[in-house]
Amino acid sequence: MSSTVLYLAIVAVWAVVLVPMWLRRDGEAGFSRLLHKKADDTQELTLEEPTIEETLDEDTDTSPAPRRRPGRAAVIARRRRRTTGLLLLTVTSIIVIATGLAPWWVSVPPVLLLAGHLSLLRVAVRMDVAQRRAEAEDRARARAEARRAAAEAAAEDAEVIELVPNVEEEVFDQYADDRRVVGG
User: Fold this and answer.
1) Are 110 and 86 in contact (CB under 8 A)?
2) Which of 58, 106, 149, 165 could form a disulfide with 102 if both were Cys (CB 3.0 to 4.6 A apart)?
3) Residue 99, exposed/middle/buried by CB under 10 A (0-12, 13-18, 19+)?
4) What is the distance between the alpha carbons of residues 171 and 184, in angstroms, rounded to a whole number?
5) Are the beta carbons of 79 and 121 closer than 8 angstroms?
6) Is 21 exposed, middle or buried (0-12, 13-18, 19+ CB in 10 A)?
7) 28-58: b or e for each residue (b if 16 or more CB lie within 10 Å)?
8) 42, 25, 45, 48: which is closest to 34 by C-alpha?
9) What percent of the residues of the chain are helix, what percent strand, and what percent coil, each to the nearest 5?
10) C-alpha separations of 157 from 145, 160, 167, 170 in Å
11) Which of 29-38, 77-86, 117-126, 133-142 shows the lowest per-residue confidence on average (mean pLDDT)?
12) Is the pLDDT of residue 21 over 50?
């Protein structure tokens, strides 16, 4: 048996895992900085290293930019891409085995990778649900606090009026001893 299958497996892993990692790292800094130079940049791309005076003249901020956490949509898209890639790798290995190009054990690593990834996705979903539940509880607690504060503020602003009965006014009592006939 030739080592073609081994090379194909290495290329597949490289394409599924390493290329996206390299592209993501390049996206943060690297070649994209050179490709998308600003229009006000007058320095030409040369192979010569800049002199000390040139580097001192440039007022560049050497502190790294703070890394932002990826949004929920980006995380879900990354999970979906990884799941699709692992599923394609597993299907490809099964097809290679079905055609007789490789022994049965070639499908074990992709299947294990897919199973491990799916188990990690289950844990991630549980964590997402717990986080959303905690955020909802925090929002409900904040709303209850706001309502309570509004009620306390309304109670402080309210004027209490004491109602005093007027003793001079006689109220008609139908059960009084002195029966007056109405209408007749």
Assistant:
1) yes
2) 106
3) exposed
4) 21
5) yes
6) exposed
7) eeeeeeeeeeeeeeeeeeeeeeeeeeeeeee
8) 45
9) 65, 0, 35
10) 18, 10, 31, 35
11) 29-38
12) yes
Distance CA 99, CA 2 (A): 15
Query: Which residue carries 């932002």 as its tokens?
Result: 68
Tens digits of per-residue pLDDT, 134-161?
A: 999 999 999 999 999 988 887 776 677 7
Tokens of 85: 């890639």
Side chain identity, residue 70 = P
Alpha helices by DSSP H, listed for 58-165, are: 72-98, 108-157
Take residue 103 and report the two structure tokens written for it: 């022994």
46-72: pLDDT as tens digits: 555 555 555 555 555 556 677 788 888
In angstroms, rounded to a whole number, what is the distance separating the alpha carbons of residues 184 and 182?
6
